[in-house]
## 1
Amino acid sequence: MAFSVSIVLEVSKRERMRMRIKHRKSSGFHCNAGSRCSVSVVLWSLVGCILTIYFISQINQNDEENRVKSSNHHFTQELEEIEEEEFHLPAPRSKRNPRALRRKGPRKQHTVIDEFLDESSELRLYFFPDQKSATGPTREMNDSKHFYPGKLWLDTDGKPIQAHGGGILFDERTETYYWYGENKDGPTYHAHPRGAARVDIIGVSCYSSKDLWAWKNEGVVLPAEQANATHDLHHSNVLERPKVIYNDNTGNFVMWMHIDDANYTKASVGVAVSNSPVGPFKYLYSKRPHNCDSRDMTIFKDDDGKAYLIYSSEENSELHVSPLTDDYLDVADQMRKILIGQHREAPALFKHKGTYYMITSGCTGWSPNRAMAHAAEEVMGLWETIGNPCVGGNKIFQMTTFFAQSTFIVPLSGLPGVFIFMADRWNPADLRDSRYVWLPLTVGGVVDEPLEYNFGFPVWSKVSIFWHRRWRLPNWWRTA
Ligand code: DGJ
């Protein structure tokens, strides 16, 4: 930089010399009117000044860019550090006595997932740390802002955040993030003895934040219907995975969600709309898109304003992708079936350097399973599976998505190639106590098992989600 500055000074010195000579020449040979000469001197000095200022500002700008780049690089390196996690399974339960062995056969092998789901497990606090270790703006100094995946996360009132299966909208006008999710703050029960654990619909919660860490409760922006038992939002039904996008043409905030009955046989999507990010949202209708069953779903808004619905269909055996209509209130006719026969759910999409990526989970109810990353050149194009993105922790963490399930991926402005992977650590014994697992996701490097090669190079970049017990965004990123 010192070198470049001296060049600029040299240039301006030379420029001044040149102008002085020119000035002398002009005085000697051409210039009779003194006023004309001083005008040209002033003009040339001005040009010189402008050039100097321009060069210096360029240097400063490059310097600033390099500083940001190098601090980003340092930050990304930190996020990509591998953090190991150790835990020991409690000793296996006693063997069956010979009579029970004859009657029931040998005990089923006890897995880590059984341990995770077992409320009386010695490991319970490891997966679901208690109130004492809760985190959030009322507990931690505001300058700390660490994310603690799995710990109880409190809002700005000190209450546990209720926004499960959620997604985030960034409102550009107010530079505010809005987090929408299922409010599950009710008792967990089984509607049918063999049915999935459930909580009655309470509604869709909304929280706002400037920094993605301190969240203010904006209330239930789409509440359940209490009286009308035929209404989609009747509390006895199912409302899951709400996602909101903004329509630049209509000025509407449009919410899409999974709507079902308690047995998950309705398998539909629901649509609601509001002219404010904090609601209230008006519920419009539900439907089976393209006459197909639709369970876990998400929506994705591309840079060009086109939006898409992605949903698990054909009894969760495949995903369907469809553009939304221009007002985002319905699906267009076009639909493409993807990942056929792969049995994936909980889709979460993002875009990086023109490539589309998606993280999905397997289909095992509330139990955690292995995530997969997928990539495509077009949202409506061919999607390829590129492997398990989970890195660090340990083998079991990687095989269970850190005991969580994908729901959304947040791009971080100013940090190209870094995203937040949002997942739910479900607690089927007490769904309101389900936790949030937010982790850094980066794109880059070679995929483990590239499926396709282009002139010897794998086509896709690797997607990695790094386990951290505690991590944070850089200080300079955003302040509340
Ligand atoms: C898995 C889905 O991803 C969740 O949203 C929820 O529907 C559970 N299944 C219910 O078992």
Note: The chain is about 20% helix and 30% strand.
## 2
Amino acid sequence: GIDIDTSATGPQISDRMYGIFLEDINHAADGGLYAELVQNRSFEYSTADNENYTPMTAWEEVAIGNAPGNAEVVNDDGRLHERNRNYLHLALPADGGEYGVVNSGYSTGITVAEGKKYDFSVWAKAPGNAAAPLTVRLRDAQGEPLAEQLRIETDKGGWTRYTGTLTATSSSTTGRLSVTGSGGGSLSLDMVSLFPRDTFKGRDNGLRADIAEKIAALDPGFARFPGGCLVNTGSHEAYEGPDWPRERSYQWKDTVGPVEERATNHNFWGYNQSYGLGYYEYFQFAEDLGAMPLPVVPALVTGCGEDEATDDPELLQRHIQDTLDLIEFANGPADSEWGGVRAEMGHPEPFGLTHVQVGNEENLPDAFFDRFLRFRDAIEEEYPGITVVGNSGPSSGGTVFERAWDLNREHGVAMVDEHYYNSPEWFLANNDRYDSYDREGPDVYLGEFASQGNRFSNALAEAAYMTGLERNADVVKMASYAPLLAAEWDTQWTPDLIWFDNSTSWGSANYEVQRLFSANTGDRVVPSTATGTPGVGGPITGAVGLSTWNTSAEYDDVRVTSADGETLLADDFSSGADQWSHTTDAGNWAVEDGAYVQTETSGENTMVTAGDSDWNDYDLEVTATKREG
Ligand code: AHR
């Protein structure tokens, strides 16, 4: 039974309790939320991004009318902008033929819907030709036209942006966009782009409407961006001309201004990030969602599998100044230097930034704090109203976590970001995690959490856990599931909240739970007590892959069997959890043939789950014999 005490009041729940964490992982931005349909539009892909990439990735040469010509990516002084290094040089056939390139988009191809409009643009330079004509075609993989072709006359002279509109005459998920030139001589191209007209809120350089609308349906209270590991890994050097470091940490100044002037960068998750969806677009999206923007800047101490602390005072000072400039970009008047950049981009009004996060999941808490405090001092001195958010490292416990929390408390950090990805059993067993957190200490921002799977049982475990967050809403002020987005055609991390391919997107069971909580956030906790005995023991069969039982006291001879009859675990618990037949030295984790078995022990309860290496649970049968007496 549940007893509700209507005469008492619990903590108030903030309107921004539930929000989103946007990181370009799983092609969340490029190839996903960012609506650009042309892949590698500026010929910048490089082996530094991905060993399979070349500047011609997603492009092929095409000759129409068997015309002789040539297409070559060049990197020379003739470039469109010094940050946009490469461009395409076409040698064109005379005598009526056409030569050029064709782009195959992401995954299956460019996806268009019959009757919809698509905005084409290209930067071109025709030094040798007067009015060299360009032809733009949209066809499917079989060569069938998907729109009436465009013909664009280019002017003789320097780089110029040309535009046109294609209206799809039929629907396809295998579109190919070709741009060809004719008339002899040469023609240079860069920033070949195709956007659906129907972006979210109809914005130029905008977002894919179906994905953005699913995010909007969460009614998020805040939007943390742009990462994650994306932020604090890689070189912290800035873009510096031809020898610019190819794997830079995410530095906001690289991502604002006209898109053709943004340098692309290696993405930590193994592809190229165009930065077409950059800081301005993130701020604007947050505003469109009615969400508090929460940018994350690198603290010059890496995490995410790297343990390095940059020891360069000048570089650190430059990043601190960049963070102050970021606040000016967001909040400064239109006649300030960085507020002026924002105004020039189309938003003279401030974005109303109130929080900045410094760092993400650093493994070296002392080195991190040394830098964090310098950021915080500088920010507080110039912008005393801004809350600077810290973090507690990459896990839900352990020595790094403990040390980080000690430092956070010692230095009175206002809000601490925690991250954990654990089994559903862990979430069920740790519902009381925040009951004992210090009410006088820092607020908690649960910036990344997920139980390992997209099954109903995962969603249920997360829902149960979130009741514990709400019960502790006086300490836990914000929470965001992670990762938010995943392309089903190139996924670096599962599970994820919202999935998409080129034509559609769908929310997971976990998404429905987040939406339930986030779109219906309560005002105040009403204290309640539950009584009754949760079901325990086996046999349990089915897809849930989860069992809890009181091992030492009640059960003997516990066996976990996979659906095809293989014994995954067997134990009589005579000498503790090390008797699990598949357990390795790695604590509770046992990985065999790409599978995992995890046991979690909390008090007298041991919980078991097993699955494959993608965190898909196996169907399990759990049997146990109840002890006599
Ligand atoms: O959400 C995926 C990754 O998980 C984030 O980039 C990182 O912060 C965490 O390790």
Note: The pocket of alpha-L-arabinofuranose is lined by residues 23, 25, 227-229, 304, 360-361, 394, 419, 448, 482-483, 493 (CB under 6 Å).
